[in-house]
Design brief:
Blueprint (H helix, E strand, L loop, with lengths): L7 H10 L5 E6 L4 E6 L6 H14 L8 E2 L3 H19 L7
Parallel strand pairs: 1-3
Antiparallel strand pairs: 1-2
Amino acid sequence: MMSIRLPLLVLAKKQAAAVPKGHFAVYVGDCRKRFVIPTSYLNNPTFQALLRRAEEEFGFEHQSGLTIPCNEDAFQALAAQMACKAKVHQFKPNAAR
């Protein structure tokens, strides 16, 4: 049986492009660092404001993926804050008996 070997660069790109179900990729900052974030962040008002800024700055007609006009450190802080809020909302204490 003959096998086909793909170059490592092609394999790396395919692995990097993988996004888990319920998530999406965004590119942040001048260096366009890639972040994979949950779709639940779309409900966050602060993230929605970033999306509006992205629309104003880049429009909808560009080839380079969803780019967020934000400093990488600020975006990481926002993502951490949204993750904490998501965990708080998921926590449901036991009902009193």
